[in-house]
Amino acid sequence: MNPLDTTEFKKQGHMIIDFLADYYENISNYPVLSQVEPNYLKKLLPSFAPSNPEPIETILEDYQKHIIPGITHWQSPNYFAYFPSSGSTAGFLGEILSTGLNVVGFNWISSPAATELENVVIDWLGEILNLPKSFLFKGGGGGVLLGTTCEGILGTLVVARDKILSKIGSENAHKLVVYGSDQTHCAVQKAAHIIGINPKNFRAIKTNKLNSFALLPESLLSTIENDLKNGLVPCYLCVTVGTTSTTAIDPVRKLCNVAKDYGIWVHVDAAYAGSACICPEFRYLIDGVEDADSFSLNAHKWFLTNLDCCCLWLKDPNSLIKCLSTTNSEYLENSASDSKQVVDYKDWQVTLSRRFRALKVWFVLRSYGVDNLRNFLRSHVEMAKTFEGLVKMDKRFEIIVPRKLALVCFRILPYGKKVADGKVTNGEAKLIGKKVANGKVTNGEAQLISSEDVVANEINRKLLDSINGSGDVYMTHAVVEGVFVIRCAIGATLTEEMHVIKAWKVVQEHADVILKDKNGSIFV
Amino acid sequence: MNPLDTTEFKKQGHMIIDFLADYYENISNYPVLSQVEPNYLKKLLPSFAPSNPEPIETILEDYQKHIIPGITHWQSPNYFAYFPSSGSTAGFLGEILSTGLNVVGFNWISSPAATELENVVIDWLGEILNLPKSFLFKGGGGGVLLGTTCEGILGTLVVARDKILSKIGSENAHKLVVYGSDQTHCAVQKAAHIIGINPKNFRAIKTNKLNSFALLPESLLSTIENDLKNGLVPCYLCVTVGTTSTTAIDPVRKLCNVAKDYGIWVHVDAAYAGSACICPEFRYLIDGVEDADSFSLNAHKWFLTNLDCCCLWLKDPNSLIKCLSTTNSEYLENSASDSKQVVDYKDWQVTLSRRFRALKVWFVLRSYGVDNLRNFLRSHVEMAKTFEGLVKMDKRFEIIVPRKLALVCFRILPYGKKVADGKVTNGEAKLIGKKVANGKVTNGEAQLISSEDVVANEINRKLLDSINGSGDVYMTHAVVEGVFVIRCAIGATLTEEMHVIKAWKVVQEHADVILKDKNGSIFV
Predict the structure, then answer these.
(1) Range of the structural domain that residue A255 is part of
(2) Inter-chain contact A20–B100, Cβ cutoff 8 Å?
(3) CATH number of the domain where residue A141 is located
(4) What are the tens digits of pLDDT across the range A393-447?
(5) Which of A313, A520, B19, B376 is the most buried (most CB within 10 A)?
(6) Cβ–Cβ contact A208 with B under 8 A
(7) Which residue in the set B13, B124, B351 is minimally distant from A151, CB to CB?
(8) Which residues carry this modification: N6-(pyridoxal phosphate)lysine (chains A, B) (predicted)?
(9) Domain tally for chain B?
């Protein structure tokens, strides 16, 4: 057995390329959201690994027959769920080249090119984002390619924690407070828990629709002041540019100004929206980032870089290295590291082993060029405008928050605008509220929002399930201020305007059916 | 611009497959360890990303000219450094198929097959490792494919911490103690720091050569007892099966027995050696694992699975889920998750986004079959035996610890066995010690080990630098009990007996030159 026999490698490699090309060619024919039932696969596969080799043809046949039906097709042009995972030929090529090299670039010596190309693309990306020089290697800062934003948040949280504990003593760890809004990604709360922040000391500061769910500086200020009064110690603030639910944009500069006075580490999480900031017209979204300590975006979301790739920049990488460098590891020492002339990325991240992610970013930037990348992102924003326009033209629907980039948040109003205007009679509303309360929504929850919204939520949930059950498109939802909204996130690489127009038709068709049910079970 | 144009995807994809096949074909012609100088790449690449697209041919030309010289070739048959990163055609194919699908499998619904195939291969692997049923899904336990062992350790540490803090209160977090040996991987100490364990409370319990650097149960016991006397709270023990420096094997069962009495979470880290345990004759290495709480190995090390892939099993996955599940994330909720009939792997790991790693494990197991995989690992052990035999035949060298699997730890003795036997006169030894102390080694350190060892360390360091500088092979080092040892880790996929024999010749040739220098500068 030679598992790297060149002839076999070539033969099977070409086979998979053709297989994947066929996949992209036919991707629209698959239901976007997998329609399998839980535990479908166990029944189809043997309980034990085979003792003897099986030919690649058999494995691919099983793949097509058993795995593909269980795939939710993130690369489908009809995929509008969560945020995109936008792959590309260049991203794919860079990734598979890295997979072929299979180097473990934990320190410089283990593959100098893996480290140095990462330094280069971090500065290239920083330049096109117009990040302040202080975040770039060429300006004394620097950055790293991680797997996900979660890792970036975890790492910077540790730095922020250790900085403060070095002053107030580790016995005061339970006093540290981490700030975000009620729209901040759950990764922050999870990372805070992991590093030992008291769960009671995570502040999900309330936002509201009136302010498009952005974190208000005055809310932050009063929360901090209140914590100080209670003897707590402010530690870390996550400012989000483009929240998951609605792409809310926290005002970076103003929030940094508040945080600065209290010595709080500010991380700007632009996981989704950051990519758009390479377009001058969207760069204002991160204005003020020069006052933050760290900044990150996910190139695997909306930058044509196949999963996974989070880009993290810091003004003071040494603070990160101080916290995350390994000790007691003589087996990793070498003269290049001793010289202090090189970057050892193991000291910039939680894990030791790391893949050569810079290759795919390099391939994407060079294969498409910055001008085309900008235009590509703009095309998604234009398509989102189109979709938003279509929603607005249908009086049965409302846009929940003004669209910022390529995410449209909308919902259907089961009684038309009448309900939204609050013209439904009390009697009706009560009845409806009660019925729903017997279903999924508890009485407690139901009381928090209007009876109209309770009904609307149920209808929209039903509408979304109906849309996704069709397999024609896949959208997901969010709940903001108790209101269930349908999210249409445009950004899959293959999506064109015709797909967006079709998606809207699908929504309308399913809405027609559901609204006809108005006199059916739910509304009796 | 269509970044997923099928024709281009096919054309460029085939090009990269041929490119990689050529790479494997010619890999022996490259210096194994990259010979570039720090910061070589910055000078070769432009300072800014290109505005316009560049053809794939140009990018690949630059790759060959600028990146390849900066690569340390982990796939080279002459690679014997660290531990292997053993790629294979099947591992590669599974990985690129996953890269092409580009799904983000954070929860079941986001691609049921990604989750369910992971469940299947976790049980398949568990069966061939003869893990107790309690670690398998089919036995009420379960597992997950992570990027690296570091993530597995971090996650289980959080569980152990929270379990104890739920009893003693989080204000006592500073009392928790984490145990390992002075041979335990640095990842444990780093993870303990990340989750907020007081750095003073990480116990690197001393091991010694007499016991092949294994952690002794009695040492653990007395350390625990001492901590308890001081009012501290034992929390977590990392038992290592196959340490990085010398493949030391901590006695699993006995250590679990000690830990059990104190309610300590036991994690068995078999990152390297775990793969070998699929062979019945090596399975004894993890005997007693049934008494541990969690167990992990890196399939990307010695299981033909391209980077990255750590397999983690737990008896009580719910304890992990309880700690790592996300809250406040309505946008991730769905009826499949609500039904509790599915696994949502986001709750089993630190990060949210995750790649479809199960595919490559499935491809490896099916393409090669378990019997061949066993024989393949055995062949590496046999080659290591050959290498060990060659070292033993040369009287100038000594084996530092008895070989366990496919890692041979050896060193040259500059004065021949005479020095090892301690027959050098005091006068000479002093003189030598002094000279070295003027060089790299401080007086303080020099006092810890014998003067002979100080000299031997310098010579072996010089020998290793000389070997690696040749580009013919790449080995790395470790330091145990102050002694510098050269590590020859056999396991690169392409390595055959002839490479091992050649590697030994390279060592001997460089030793010849260095020992001729005996009357040169160092020995004057």
Answers:
(1) 136-315
(2) yes
(3) 3.40.640.10
(4) 999 999 999 999 999 999 999 865 444 444 443 333 333 343 343 334 333 333 3
(5) A313
(6) no
(7) B351
(8) 301
(9) 3
